[in-house]
Amino acid sequence: QVQLVESGGGLVQAGGSLRLSCLASGRTFSRYAMGWFRQATGKEREFVAAISRSGGNTYYADSAKGRFTISRDNAKNTVYLQMNSLKPEDTAVYYCAAGPPFSDYPGVRPYDYNYWGQGTQVTVSR
User: Fold this and answer.
1) Are strands 46-51 and 58-60 parallel, antiparallel or unpaired?
2) Average pLDDT over every residue of 78-106
């Protein structure tokens, strides 16, 4: 069982930056590849980025490439999402998720992931 708690969301102007954090409970964090998803009002949850268990491999949605960076610190049980050059269309609730244990790349679909945080709101104003 893994419990995930996101933080770092907020209101930012277009062009600004935010850094999201996701703290995982337990001593098995390094067993899980991690992902970030987002869900805007009235839209389906969509993949943003994922990172392998060691952090050596990262994957991004086209909308995130070049602007967002996913990273992790296994010693701190934390995964991060650095978001730069934010746009109003990035406005959404952002969720972190843990994939099945010992899988290095769970995929880009929400049902590929086993555990979810409660989400943190990111609002980008024009």
Assistant:
1) antiparallel
2) 95
Rounded to whole angstroms, the Cα distance separating 76 from 12 reads: 27
- Spatial strand order of the sheet with 4-7 comes to 4-7, 18-24, 78-83, 68-73
Residue 105 CB partners (closer than 8 Å, separation 6+): 33, 50, 52, 57, 59, 99
Nearest to 9 by CA among 74, 116, 75, 93: 93
Q: What is the pLDDT, as a whole number, of residue 100?
A: 87
Confidence of residue 88 (pLDDT cuts 50, 70, 90): very high
Contact 31, 102 (CB under 8 A): yes
DSSP state at residue 53: S
From the list 119, 98, 78, 79, the residue with the least C-alpha distance to 33 is: 98
Residue 87: in which H helix or E strand, if any?
A: none
